[in-house]
Each structure stands twice: as C-alpha cells, then as structure tokens.
Prior knowledge:
With 431 residues, the protein is of the alpha/beta class. The protein has 16 helices and 13 strands. The chain folds into 3 domains: 3-48; 76-318 and 416-430, Nucleoside phosphorylase/phosphoribosyltransferase catalytic domain (Pyrimidine Nucleoside Phosphorylase, Chain A, domain 2); 325-407, Aldehyde Oxidoreductase, domain 3, CATH 3.90.1170.30. The strands form 4 sheets. The chain has a 4-stranded mixed beta sheet with strand order 1-4-5-13, sandwiched between helices. Strand 4 (193-200), helix 10 and strand 5 form a beta-alpha-beta unit.
Amino acid sequence: MNILDIIDKKEKNEKLSQEELQYVVDGYLNGTIKDYQMSAFLTEIDLLGLSEEETINLTNIMLHSGEILNLGFDNITDKHSTGGVGDKTTIVLAPLVASLGVKIAKMSGRGLGHTGGTIDKLESIEGFQTSMTLEKFKNQVAKIGIALVGQMGNLVPADKKIYALRDVTGTVDSISLIASSIMSKKLASGASNIVIDLKVGSGALVNTLDEAKELAHLMVKIGNINQRKTACVITNMNQPLGFAIGNSVEVLEAIDTLKGQGPEDLTKLVIKLGGIMTHLALNIDEKEAEEKVKENLFNQKGYQKMLEWVKAQGGNINHIPVAQNKITILAPITGYISNIDALKIGKLARKLGAGRLNKDDKIDLTVGIVLKHKVGDYIEKGQPLVDIFYNQKQISEEEILSCYTFQNEKVNPPKLIIDIIKPEKYISQTK
Ligand code: URA
C-alpha cells in the first residue's frame, strides 16, 4: 500500500477500504505521509466526497487515534453547536438541564471565530476556572451534576492534525470531513446522549439547507451506530442569535435568559434543545421534557444551578466586566429590518477585539456589540439600533449600518428552528 496509489484510487472515485483509510491516518500522524500528500488526498475528498460507509470508517479510525474518555458515569449528555454569531446557548442550556438531573460533563473549545468560544466566554466571569484535573472534574459532576472545561487529555489527535491542514488548504467545508471531525470528538468525550445544534446560513459553517440536511443525517447515523442517542436540530444563522455578540456581553445575556428574561429566539432554542436533551437523558416523553425545561427556566431553578456551577468553578457571577466606552448607533431610516448579516457583524465584533484571527491571538473579553432589534422589527429613524462597547479598537457607524437592510413593507421574523433530524429508533449503550 502507498499514498500515491490511494490518492489515485480516490481520484477515480473508487471506494477506499478501512485498511486504506487507516493507512492514511496512521501515516499522516507518524509523519511518513507528508502535508502536501495529505492535502492532495483531502482535496480529492473535498471534490468527490466520501461514501457513508467510508465516512463511518474514517470517524472510527480518527476516534481510536487517541484517548477515549471514560468518566465513570453511564448517562452523560452532551450538546454541540457548529458555531454561530452570538451563540451563547451552551451557557444557558447546560445549567438549565442540569437543574432537571441531566448530567453534563462537557469539554468546550476556544473560538477561532468572530468571537470567543464557550470557554473564552466563561472566562469573562472573574475567577472562573476552565481547566481542572480529571479527578476534580468527575467529583464536580458527581456532586452538582455539571462541569464544563476546556479540552482535556489527548482526544482525537488525528483530527487536530488533519483539521489544522484543512484550515489552510480550503478543505474545511467537506461534509464527510466535517461529520468525521465533529463526531470522532463527540464519541471520544464519553457522552451517551448527543444533541447537535447545526447552524445554517450566512454566519454558519454550512450555508445551504441541503448541505445542512446531509450533514445532519450523517452525524445522527454515526452517533447512533456507535450506540449514542444522537439527534440534530438545524437552526437559522442568517442573523445573530439573541442580541449580544462578544464574550462578557453574551454571558450577561445568558444569565438574563436563565432568569426568564432573555431574547425570544434564544429562549425558544434553549427550550427545544433542552427538551431533546432531557428526553434522551431521562427517558421521558419529549413534550413532557420540554415542559420541564420551561418550568425550570421560569422558576429560576436553572439560574440557581448556574450560581452553584459558577461557584464550584471559582467564578464570581457578580463580576463580569464590560468595556466602559459605549457608543450607540441610531437607525438611519424608518422601516422594517429585513436583514442583519450575521457573518459581517461577527467580523466587526472580531475587529473590536472580541475574537481571534490566529489561534494565539489574545482577545478582549469585555468588548462587544449589542443589537437593540432583530429582523422583522419596525424601527423609526433616530431610534437606537446598536450599542458598541469598545476599548482601543473601534468600528465605524458606516461599518455597522452596512450589516443592515431595511424595507417599507412588513417583514416576518425568520424561522429559527428549521428541522429536527433523529434516527428512526435510538440505539443506546446505557441501561
Ligand atoms: N468543527 C469541527 O470540529 N470540525 C469541522 O470539521 C468543522 C467544524
């Protein structure tokens, strides 16, 4: 077997065997297959795709390239988001479902996006510790039912190396490669129930609904054949989620949401995702689970769990600093907001310092953009449209207004939850 024959075979769109895929992943990890050879191989996959069977095999090979966490609990629930602008869902969802007895032992990432990832956002809470020993992590889950940290252990080293190469070779958007990358990490992190929030739209990893559906079906299939109850919710990311975009401003919005005073779209999403997580974890009817989630949102039991969780990880919930400088951009005309470009506004948040361009960039957790209105709202000229919280770096009024379109005719708010993909029957490894 050699890499040139394998690239040649893929170029002819012939099926690759498990042994051939294993040979490529092992060879790339041990350095016998070079970056230029691997990038030729990934480019062929990007152009021609992989079959479902090849994708399943590749996921399993990647999964076994490193450590597989065993947390010692038999019913851990995980939620994954493919990432979007203003996406603070995990910070609301994790304590909310934990308050219902759903066990959350989650690892999250830092963002290489327009704003920080969940870990960066949580670090905007003064003192919040995002790393701890495995022992402490397990004890915290056993004691309060929730712990959330940055990456631990040597999980899926094959993905780390391949993803870094995909990032610089324009092969990030292959559906087969995304599915194997996400699912190998989810499977390695030890959860038995997995709910994926797959964003589609301008500010998302996938831009079309067809691609989103294909990816969702593939991930659900991979999860379930690996005996993890897996479901995927496809949600709209054409405009930012909620109002706040940044790090500390997003945590503050997450807290408002846990107090039952959050934005309508975020609240709706949390209830839907939380309902599915609770349904899978507690084995109860999905409607009943959704009702329980709603109840703990509005009676603030979810918020109480957040207080317990933040305290357990050393954070001071009363100290979440936001930049002192603020300017308010006013609406330039009277009319209905017909679009807020999520990608563009996300890039402006990064320009303020809220996100990274390179993985070692330092981000400013206190800066951000807070919208006053969403798509479908009617606004009069001169009314506040956006607040910008800034330090050294600034963005202009013109840049903010270029993210918006207005029209005279009424606009319906876009549908947030587009589709829910589940298997016909969940295959579970839990008793
Ligand atoms: N997120 C991942 O973890 N992997 C991908 O391939 C894309 C997004």
